[in-house]
Amino acid sequence: MFASTTSVVMVGAEPCPVRVEAHVGSAKEVFKLTGLPDTAVREAKDRVRAAVVSSRFSFPSRWITVNLAPADVKKGGADFDLPIALGVLGAAGTIPSRPVVALGQLALDGQVRAGRGTLGAAIVAARMGVPCLVAEESAAEAASVSGAAVFPVRTLADAVDVISGAEPRPISRPPLADATDTPDLAEVRGHPLARRALEVAAAGGHHLFLHGPPGSGKTMLARRLPGVLPPLTPDQALAVACIWSAGNRSRGVDPTPPFRAPHHTASLAALVGGGSGTIVPGEISLATHGVLFLDELGEFPSRTLDALRQPLEEGEVALARRGISVTYPAAVQLVAASNPCPCGYAGDRHSACKCRPSSVDTYRRRISGPLLDRFDLRVAVRRLHADEVQGPPGEATAAVAERVAAARRHQSARGRLNRDLGRPELDRLAIQQAGEAMLGRAIDASGLTARGFDRVRRVARTLADLDDTGVVEECHVAEALALRGSW
Amino acid sequence: MVSDTLRVRRGEEAYPALLETISDPPPAVWIRGRLPAGPGVAIVGTRRATRYGLGLARSMGAAVARAGWPVVSGLARGVDGAAHRGCLDAAGSGVAVLGSGIDVWYPPEHQGLGQDLVRQGGAVVSEYPPGTSPEPWRFPARNRIISALSAVVVVTEAAVKGGALITARLAAEQGREVFAVPGDVSRSTSVGTNLLIRDGALPILGPEDLLEALSLVMGPPPVRAIEPQPLEIDVPPAGASVEMVVEANGGDTARILAILGRLESEGRVRIEGGEVVRIT
Description:
The structure holds two protein chains of two kinds.
Chain A: E1 2-11, E2 14-24, E3 30-34, H1 39-42, H2 44-54, E4 63-69, H3 81-91, E5 101-102, E6 105-106, E7 112-113, H4 118-128, E8 132-135, H5 139-143, E9 150-153, H6 156-163, H7 192-204, E10 207-211, H8 218-222, H9 225-228, H10 234-246, E11 259-260, H11 268-272, E12 273-274, E13 280-281, H12 283-286, E14 291-294, H13 302-314, E15 316-321, E16 324-329, E17 333-338, H14 357-365, H15 369-372, E18 375-380, H16 386-389, H17 397-414, H18 423-427, H19 433-445, H20 450-466, H21 474-484
Parallel strand pairs in A: 3-4, 5-8, 8-9, 10-17, 10-18, 11-14, 14-17
Antiparallel strand pairs in A: 1-2, 2-4, 6-7, 12-13, 15-16
Helix pairs in contact in A: 2-3, 7-17, 7-20, 17-20, 19-21, 20-21
Chain B: E1 5-9, E2 28-33, E3 40-44, H1 51-67, E4 71-73, H2 79-89, E5 94-97, H3 111-119, E6 123-126, H4 138-148, E7 150-155, H5 163-173, E8 177-180, H6 188-198, E9 202-203, H7 207-218, E10 240-241, H8 242-248, H9 253-265, E11 269-272, E12 275-278
Parallel strand pairs in B: 3-4, 3-7, 4-5, 5-6, 7-8, 8-9
Antiparallel strand pairs in B: 1-2, 2-6, 10-12, 11-12
């Protein structure tokens, strides 16, 4: 007798359906599990037998073969317990056989525990148009996938009830979660330049580099960027949630752009992804469609920073380990911060820098030119005076986000973010005559380099988008020049 | 021997007359470029300057150069470099007096600055033979040449101990005027200049004030000082952070940034590390 159910294994952030085939044969007590299972999956045999018996079903004393297909995808974890149990019971004729997607670990008393690929199971179930059986505690997460008929099951017996057609109703899809509270820009007093840069960075998706003395507010500003960015679309939110669940982290389908701030001692694997065994996504993938904040950029090992360059360019990161290769999205907006020098006071109006000039050079050279070139906006953040700290609150996030959203609409109409404009597109950019002339003068007067020229044009395009004008005007070029900054 | 370098011994016709006015003229000097005949204006100060000192040194260097007087300094880090840079900003001619051989650039990152001075019609001068390495004890001796080539020594920022105060003392002994920029009494880099003012140096309140004081000492400037062109926004003479400029001009960030960007493209201000410096 034969029966099959479907389960899911996550390959990177992509759910891969796994057919769990069960066959119950001649009267000889054997339980075989095939199809590239790892040790945890192999141990399912004992858990399944105990759970079935505890749930007062009879466990077939026959030759049982369970095969997990496709055979070439490695399966790990204990999430196959529930589909294996349902398959075996179906093959033995104890329960009817019905196509479902099931995912969950079984306790020895028959309780179902949440598995890792819950979101993936819901996605696969929605695609196949079959019921999705998951543990009660992860049902809400699964139900956030549109089109999935999610049945929460507390025990194996509950799951059997669903399959036998006892007609419990699937839980309804909860509305998209409210945006997580992000800190508001109104709390930032003063800092007109940095606020403007933050708005422009959000509007064009530009990578932003903030430099200034310790305690000047670089981190405070960076944390407020996700709130200014447009909320994630349901698809983006789901993709982010899948990446997070692949990294064993839970994040609902939340429209708030993620914000990740890894410490500079984080390993290369923690940043770009990797690890032995399963390949987990790194911070650059966890921050997809959101913000990756690297504080103390110069303190990150140069090997790590170099490894970030390609993913930043391509918007995804390909990882390969022992014959398995996985691609994770890595479409992040990068915000980096640095002190101006080791002591932190170079360029401060009120305190002299105590560093030797050569150590300042060494400190700055740690951030390589090619990496620095990624930052269209480089802004000095200054320490506030006492009276500014007590000044009036700044403009609130909501007002800024509205302008950003309007500017983004122009870019989605054109098909890409201004951050991604390459030289050929920039050369075709419509710039007012006076603006072109100003760019020419800037090349002579302030030694604007070719790369600097591109950065200024990208930012000028964003400023024009914020101003709702199709042609880049002189004032946009001028402001972009002022925002170009130096380091 | 460096090809474009001239060695002049005392007694030779080309020996700078100004050096004969001091008590211990160097027996010979090496000159690269063209040394101006008349006295210049020395702008000196600490190597560990704050933005305050750097901004002022640069805008005063530009103001002096635009008026037509040579800017003399020591090519050192900090105030010296900023003064030379201001002179270059205003397309003036300046003189750098080295404490090493004329072919030994110290600090190395100021090599380009020294070469630009020569290219722009100024000079690099040293009393040490080519190849002489920079040693700390050579710099005080070098300072007497800075003041010798100048009618006025302006100290923008100085701690109590340091070459700038030595230059000021030597200048006074050589009969040169000493001007100093006052600063915050609690800031170590202004203690030296405040002391100079207490002891009789003329306090200087900004580039325009400097030009006025200079015309009293040196007579009318060789080039009629162009009236500083008013910028359409307020930028303090000592320079200011971009944010201070934005706030001082009404707070419309986008508009002020656009004005600053245009002024920079016209070479009238410079924006570096978040600071705005006036060039005109």
